[in-house]
């Protein structure tokens, strides 16, 4: 796909539903008593993988034009799947599902695509085994993973990394454990699982970085409205900030505090972003307006990292256009995402003539000189593809993106929306 440098981006858009919340809505809807109507569900490949896995365990899930309807089977109503549960490219499906499967009275095997087979699973195998789970993985760290029936008991577990996937896997296993389950996070990660548990009547307490769950008798189905994904809005926030003359509004974006690190960082860089129409239901939501501004470099590290982990590739693009040095540190986790996102961004930014240096836990970008266009690799990673597309909009010359179709993982209409804004 070719992308030309463009004039101002203007208009009003919505972005697809939040990926993390969409996964959880299917999973908890399946385990609840009663019917769950989900609006705003993300019809991306990752969330469709979650639907597929639950259908294979006997859950009826209907997809209509404007909602997804899950017929809950209750905590103990899943059936043994006849084949391997295929999780595609989705780390969230793989890890959260392990937590649920650990507590089932049947055997199930999980596997995903080439990227999933390289992602570390030892981090979930360890706590689940401590809870009594019987789980096998390739070299004790990789998919395919097989979980056998076992009795679980609650544990207190200190997470070695601030990972919502790991936290959620343990809490989901905690639904089936005898006694309380406590997770202690090194820094707060996204709390969508905890919020949805509360909405479904589960007793779960958060005090600072300590989360404690009491196993419930059952979950009560509630309807779920999924807000727009701030991780998808991020591409337009950066595009609006770096393409001269732009002004655009993204409506109905989820602005849960555990996800809004991108807003803090872009504002620190000098971006003009305003919030309007704020409302708070199970998740806080508002409209975001961004206007072009001169950006400057910043330092990004510490406890903000889990609040913007998926946005770091596109933040690196903003940094390439920002005057001065941007240092990203404490972001080792980026190496074990859908691709090694540190290596990917350093290589691709260099291709565009950006002064960028890889470090052990992040990168240093010396920005301010308009990048040139280039022929970019995506590493089959949706967020790398969209980040480079944003760079291409404000580059000096035409760019090419290989494998643009990978955006279907989280944002199937990304390029159409970009075009509608004038990209
Ligand atoms: C997710 C958590 C994050 C994020 C991923 C989605 C989730 O991973 O990178 O895209 O839905 O829980 P970690 O929390 O494991 O870093």
Task: Please give a structural write-up.
By secondary structure, the protein is α/β, with parallel strands linked by helices. The protein has 2 domains: 2-16 and 227-421, UDP-n-acetylglucosamine1-carboxyvinyl-transferase, Chain; 19-225, UDP-n-acetylglucosamine1-carboxyvinyl-transferase, Chain (Alpha-beta prism). It has helices at 19-31, 45-55, 91-101, 122-130, 164-174, 192-199, 230-242, 261-268, 312-321, 341-351, 382-393, 414-420; strands at residues 2-3, 10-14, 35-39, 60-63, 68-71, 85-86, 108-111, 134-138, 142-148, 152-153, 156-158, 177-178, 181-184, 204-207, 210-213, 224-225, 247-254, 272-280, 284-291, 299-300, 324-328, 355-359, 362-367, 375-376, 399-401. The strands form 7 sheets. Strands 2-17-19-18 form a 4-stranded mixed beta sheet. A 4-stranded mixed beta sheet has the order 4-5-3-16, with helices on one face. Helix 4 (122-130) packs parallel to helix 5. The longest helix has 13 residues, at 19-31. The protein starts with a strand and ends with a helix. The model has no long low-confidence stretch (mean pLDDT 98). The structure holds shikimate-3-phosphate (S3P).
Radius of gyration: 21 Å
Residue ranges: pLDDT <50 for 5 or more in a row?
none
- Mass-distribution shape: globular
| Straight-line N-to-C gap | 13 Å
Mean pLDDT: 98
Strand order in the largest sheet: 2-17-19-18
How many domains? 2
Helix run count: 12
CATH second-level architecture of the largest domain: Alpha-beta prism
Biggest sheet character:
4 strands, mixed
Category by helix and strand content: alpha/beta
The H-level CATH homologous superfamily of the largest domain, spelled out, is Enolpyruvate transferase domain
Roughly what fraction of the amino acids lie in strands? 25-35%
Task: Using the coordinates shown, work out and report the CATH topology of the largest domain.
Answer: UDP-n-acetylglucosamine1-carboxyvinyl-transferase, Chain
Into which percent range does the helicity of residues fall?
Answer: 25-40%
Bound heterogens, unique: shikimate-3-phosphate
Overall CATH class of the largest domain: Alpha Beta
Give a count of the beta strands, DSSP E runs of length 2 or more: 25
């Amino acid at each position: 796909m070719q992308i030309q440098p463009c004039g101002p981006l203007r208009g009003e858009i919505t972005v697809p539903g939040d990926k993390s919340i969409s996964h959880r809505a299917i999973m908890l809807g399946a385990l609840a008593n009663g019917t769950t109507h989900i609006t705003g569900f993300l019809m991306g490949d990752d969330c469709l993988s979650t639907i597929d896995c639950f259908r294979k365990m006997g859950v009826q899930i209907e997809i209509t034009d404007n909602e997804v309807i899950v017929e809950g089977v209750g905590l103990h109503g899943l059936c043994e799947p006849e084949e391997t549960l295929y999780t595609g490219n989705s780390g969230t499906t793989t890890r959260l599902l392990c937590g649920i499967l650990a507590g089932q009275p049947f055997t199930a095997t999980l596997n995903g695509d080439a990227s999933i087979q390289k992602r570390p699973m030892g981090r979930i195998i360890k706590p689940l085994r401590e809870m009594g789970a019987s789980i096998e993985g390739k070299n004790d760290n990789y998919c395919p993973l097989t979980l056998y029936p076992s009795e679980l008991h609650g544990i207190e577990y200190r997470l070695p990394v601030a990972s919502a996937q790991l936290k959620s896997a343990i809490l989901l296993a905690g639904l089936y454990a005898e006694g309380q389950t406590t997770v202690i996070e090194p820094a707060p990660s996204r709390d969508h699982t905890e919020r949805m548990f509360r909405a479904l009547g589960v007793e779960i307490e958060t005090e600072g970085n300590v989360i404690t769950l009491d196993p419930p008798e059952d979950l009560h189905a509630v309807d779920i409205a999924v807000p727009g994904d701030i991780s998808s809005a991020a591409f337009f926030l950066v595009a609006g900030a770096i393409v001269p003359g732009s002004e655009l509004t993204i409506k109905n974006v989820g602005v849960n505090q555990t996800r809004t690190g991108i807003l803090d960082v872009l504002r620190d860089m000098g971006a003009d972003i305003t919030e309007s129409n704020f409302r708070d239901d199970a998740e806080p939501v508002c409209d975001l307006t961004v206007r072009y501004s001169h950006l400057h470099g910043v330092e990004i590290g510490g406890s903000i990292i889990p609040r913007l982990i998926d946005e770091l590739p596109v933040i690196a693009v903003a940094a390439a256009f920002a005057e001065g040095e941007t240092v990203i540190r404490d972001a080792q986790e980026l190496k074990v995402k859908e691709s090694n996102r540190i290596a990917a961004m350093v290589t691709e930014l260099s291709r565009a003539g950006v002064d960028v240096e890889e470090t052990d836990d992040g990168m240093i970008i010396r920005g301010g000189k308009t990048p040139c266009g280039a022929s970019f690799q995506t590493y089959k990673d949706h967020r790398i593809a969209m980040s480079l597309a944003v760079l291409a909009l404000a580059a000096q010359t035409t760019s090419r993106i290989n494998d643009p179709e990978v955006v279907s993982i989280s944002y199937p209409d990304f390029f159409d929306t970009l075009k509608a804004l004038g990209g």
